[in-house]
Amino acid sequence: MNRTVLDLWVGFFVALGIAAVMFLALKVGNLSSARLSETYVLQAKFDNIGGLKVRGPVKSAGVVVGRISDIRFDAETYEAVVEMTIDGRYRFPKDTFASIFTAGLLGEQYIGFDAGGDEKMLQAGDTIAKTQSAVVLEKLISQFLFSKAADGQDKK
Amino acid sequence: MARPADLLRKLGHATVERVWRLGFAARFFWVVLLYSGASFRRLPLTLREIYFSGVLSLIIILVSGLFVGLVLGLQGFEILQRFGSTEALGTLVALSLTRELGPVLAAIFFASRAGSSVTAEIGLMKATEQLKAMDMMAVNPIARVVAPRFWGGVISMPLLAAIFSAMGVLGGWLIGVVFIGVDDGSYWSQMQSSVDFRFDVWNGIVKSFVFGVAVSLIAVFEGYDSVPTAEGVSRAITRTVVTSVLAVLALDFVLTSFMFRGTS
């Protein structure tokens, strides 16, 4: 086989392969949107994280501003310590409220930031003081049942 | 009285034979790596093998990738419809392709398309004593014949797997969005939000690289080790395909259990 034709075909093949990898990275994967060039780490402690997972999103006003990088259990306070990597472009005030929400009824869980009004900003490595745990469905239902039962007794 | 002893001897013989072959394969692998300098110094040798194992496998990879994507799209839509979450079709197609189906199926097609022809080529070279003739002329047959074919396969395999996955995602898009009518935006956005480059795509590429090494090694080894007769070569080709497929599936399980253990 002619050398130049062969080279051309191999070049075409390699270019096609690289194009496929780029397609998988940019169009299928989230390399383009989730490239966090400069990041800083925040921590938050929760009584109960529900079904939160590492690599889950951290959102503020619905926009993804970071990812959950680590979840640990603190054996001294019996709380869950969640470490988040936040995009360096976004700063949050000291009194930011971190809560665990669920996307949809059965969707994945994520951490939502509600910015407060403090003048001072959270620095890298800080721990968010105000947190709200995940809503556990069983607890919610049992609370509802207890309150119903209490209502019934009041009426008698 | 001789029968039990005979059976035991046969068992022992078979075991020793297997272990010996395994050891020979490992030493062969080492020698191929040792003499692979020439396949990069004389790049045309390797380029020719990339042409034969990579470019000529393109058609089967493109077509089968497209059809696997089409089937995934249809079946995935049918099942997701029951849960009222057809928007997750993109996620389903992309994750199953990049993580498992892309590397594994591409490796199996690669073994049957390119691996078998490499085995046949080397086996016939051995049967017609071309390898011996090379040795006579002080040309190392491993450096000249085996190593370029090995590296050609190793380089082609990850590219083929990526092309397969990309074609599959497009196939799923074709059936899901164009024919059935899943929303175009949610197909891609749900996919992008749940497919992670480092975790899913990169692990798939690592997998296909490992499969490439395994399939190429099996192909060149079976060819080099074949009995130099017409029957021996045909048996070696069969063994290449069977052993490659089994090795790919077994390796896939091991790699998956290391890569995707526990998390998400």
Q: Which stretches of chain A are poorly predicted, pLDDT < 50 over at least 5 residues?
A: none
Based on CA atoms alone, the radius of gyration of chain B comes out at 22 Å
**Order of strands across the widest beta sheet of chain A?**
7-1-4-3-2-6-5-8
Largest interface: A-B, 28 and 34 residues
The structure class of chain A reads alpha/beta
Give the strand content of chain B.
Answer: under 5%
- Silhouette of chain A: elongated
Instruction: Report the total helices of chain B.
Output: 10
N to C succession of SSEs of chain A: HEEEEEEEEH
SSE class of chain B: mainly alpha
The low-confidence runs of chain B, each spanning 5 or more residues with pLDDT under 50, are none
Tell me the series of helices and strands of chain B, N- to C-terminal.
HHHHHHHHHH
Helix content of chain B: over 70%
Largest sheet of chain A: 8 strands, mixed
Description:
The complex is a heterodimer of chains A (156) and B (264). Chain A is an alpha/beta fold. Chain A folds into two domains: 1-33; 39-142, no CATH class. Chain A contains two helices and eight strands, in the order αββββββββα. Chain A has helices at residues 3-28, 137-155; strands spanning 39-46, 57-60, 63-74, 79-87, 97-102, 109-114, 127-128, 130-132. Chain A has an eight-stranded mixed sheet with strand order 7-1-4-3-2-6-5-8, with no helix packed on it. In chain A, a hairpin with a 4-residue loop joins strand 3 (63-74) and strand 4. The termini of chain A are far apart. The relative contact order of chain A is 0.17. The model of chain A has no long low-confidence stretch (mean pLDDT 83). Chain B has one domain (35-259). The termini of chain B are far apart. The mean pLDDT of chain B is 90. Chain B is elongated and about 65 Å long. Chain B has helices spanning 2-34, 37-41, 43-53, 58-82, 89-127, 130-136, 141-180, 184-194, 197-225, 230-259. Chain A binds chain B through residues 1, 3, 6-7, 9-10, 12-14, 16-21, 23-25, 27-31, 33-34, 53-55, and chain B through 44, 47-48, 50-51, 54-55, 58, 94, 98, 156, 158-160, 162-163, 165-167, 169, 188, 191-193, 195-197, 199-201, 204-205, 263-264.
